Amino acid sequence: MNARSGRVVTAAGAGVLLVALVSLSAQQPPQAPAQPPAQPSTQAPAQPAPPPPAPGTPPKPLVPLAASTLAANPDPYFGEWVTVTAAVEQTLALLAFSIDQDKTKSTGKEILVLAPRMNSPVDLNTYVTVIGEVVRFDPEEIAKKSKDYKVDLPADVIAKYKGKPALLATAVVNSAGLDVAKKPLPPVTADDEVLTKIMKQVGPANTALRSDIEKMDVNLAKEHATVLKQAFTQAEAFWKSKGKSNAIQWTQEARKAAESVDAAAATSNWEGAKSSAATLGQQCGACHTVYRERLEDGSYRVKLGVPGTW
């Protein structure tokens, strides 16, 4: 490989890594700012718990790593989440392949990669960026660790890699910058569109309402409580059309809580407003837990195939 092609490969690898890291960082949920000590008369109402990280979000910071380094000295990296850019050495199964640092020849220091899915195959002798956890390859241990990874390999391949480092990939970004291991997003349905439209009213209004209560702003508190009452009325109608009795109850209770906030604000009963706002958030959280699914891109889909019918 000449110097010019080496520079191209290096640039391409850096670009692919940047795409992958940006994609993963976009999935990270924002950190809530530290709250000041509670004050008897100005404490904001309890807020719903932040949403969980999107599926596939690494629990640890990513460690950039060369395949040759991992192959030569794997012990410090077991259990770490890494990014490795290397050439595809061999396709071993539908969801398994090996990578090598040198695309021009086999070095005998290949790393096994296992993917939960592959939307398209990776091409031999092309560079990919693999993001995932480093594990010591053992089919039984991997089966215990995660049901997402199927070790469907011939006996001789298992024997070759057993005990050696392997990557449980959450992303496999090819030379075109596409993550071929990414879970395809389900299509947006008419129900998703209806509920998302309602939730886009509820979220901002609920956040604003908590701020209104903290600032003791009667006019804004009543304005945002009214928005919430209308949104929960729409949500109740949606869930009635789906026959989900528990969701209907949650939306009814949330609407009543918004009405209570409105009434409390009108009389400057801010402690009562805080209590009702907290109840409202609890109803939202309960419904979201059962009927809303957060996807890898941070968007949501409605889950209707769960208990809760009349």
Describe what you observe in this structure.
This protein has 310 residues and is an alpha+beta fold. The protein folds into two domains: 3-27 and 50-173, Beta Barrel (OB fold (Dihydrolipoamide Acetyltransferase, E2P)), CATH 2.40.50.140; 190-302, Four Helix Bundle (Hemerythrin (Met), subunit A), CATH 1.20.120.10. The chain is built from eight helices and eight strands, in the order H-E-H-E-E-E-E-H-H-E-H-H-H-H-E-E. The strands form two sheets. It has a five-stranded mixed beta barrel. The chain has a two-stranded antiparallel ribbon with strand order 7-8. The N and C termini lie far apart (68 Å). The model is unreliable at 1-49 (pLDDT under 50).
Q: Which architecture of the largest domain would the CATH scheme give at its second level?
A: Beta Barrel
Query: How large is the count of helical segments?
Result: 8
Radius of gyration from the CA trace?
25 Å
- Biggest sheet: strands, sense, closure? 5 strands, mixed, barrel
Oligomer: single chain
- Extended strand count: 8
Order of helices and strands: HEHEEEEHHEHHHHEE
- Please name the CATH topology of the largest domain: OB fold (Dihydrolipoamide Acetyltransferase, E2P)
CATH class bucket of the largest domain: Mainly Beta
Task: List low-pLDDT spans.
Answer: 1-49
Name the strands of the widest sheet in spatial order: 2-3-4-6-5
Q: What count of structural domains?
A: 2
General shape: elongated
- Please report which band the strand proportion falls in: under 5%, 5-15%, 15-25%, 25-35%, 35-45% or over 45%: 15-25%
Structural class: alpha+beta
Helix fraction?
A: 40-55%
Terminal CA distance reads 68 Å
